[in-house]
Amino acid sequence: MENNLTMSGGGRPTVMVTNDDGIDAPGLRSLVRALVSSNRFHVLVCAPDSEKSAVSHCITWLNAVSAKPVEINGATAFAVSGTPADCTSLGISKALFPSIPDLVISGINMGSNCGYHIVYSGTVAGAREAFFNGIPSVSISYDWVEGRSSVNDFTLAADASLPIICAILAEINKKTYPQNCFLNVDVPTDVVNHKGYRLTKQGKSVVKIGWTQVTSESQGGKMLSTMTMDTNSSQYSEADSLNAKHDHLLFKREAKGSQLETGDTDYCMLQEGYITVSPLGALSHADMDSQAYFKQWLPVVTESFSSAL
């Protein structure tokens, strides 16, 4: 899909916002307020009508999705019954809005999206779907930490993201913005004292997940983000155990530790206090060692198979 700067909002570029935490999430609302109050953008919102965290790039195929108008001051907004990828796809299609946005922003997510967890992220998928269709995009996440973070931090994270958003749109206007990637931005927990912007690459950090058998569906942990699970969020009583049917077993996810790393990666630089900016693509290439291994391995397999015939 070819994208031209529409300047449809009275000479202003059009920005569309989506997310995976839902249209009422404080991260999205803070971002929209920042965009609207800057008076620089024509703002559209097309976001899930409920939380869709960690759904990755799932799309709705068999059923129709609904889009309900929502009142958000200064923006044209719809709550959609689908996934983040659905929301982006619908929002850029011209079926819902009369024009194609110049930039799609997905976020601000409640929790970081770094390392391998980018694959799980519905927030990142919202930006990736725009990238698939040739529209510049950026996903933004705030490294929410229970007990340290507050809702006000989303406002600070939105303000800290505005320079990047404005810079992207300036490059789009000059037709110098690269078409072969999209950006993933993570804002540190202590956003007030962040150390500046840091170009990083996707690392290999991941939270290891295990499973524990439970007696009630209400014992499942709440997903705070793709990097964090609040396993203490569910309150249940002995009566809830009656919900467990005798003909099946119930299990819940729980964190079993982390695989972390060192170096100039997204997770490491985020923990050091930087706002990390990571260019992402959509292709999943294996590393060079793996490529070299299978280059030797596959001819042997072919020869062995031919000999057995």
UniProtKB/TrEMBL annotation:
Keywords associated with the record: Hydrolase, Metal-binding
Record Pfam families: SurE
UniProt keyword Translocase, yes or no: no
A GO term for molecular function: metal ion binding
Coiled coil start-end: none
Gene3D superfamilies listed in its UniProt record: Survival protein SurE-like phosphatase/nucleotidase
Residues in Survival protein SurE-like phosphatase/nucleotidase domain copies: 15-206
Family assignment from sequence similarity: Belongs to the SurE nucleotidase family.
Protein name stated in the entry: Survival protein SurE-like phosphatase/nucleotidase domain-containing protein
Origin species: Castilleja foliolosa
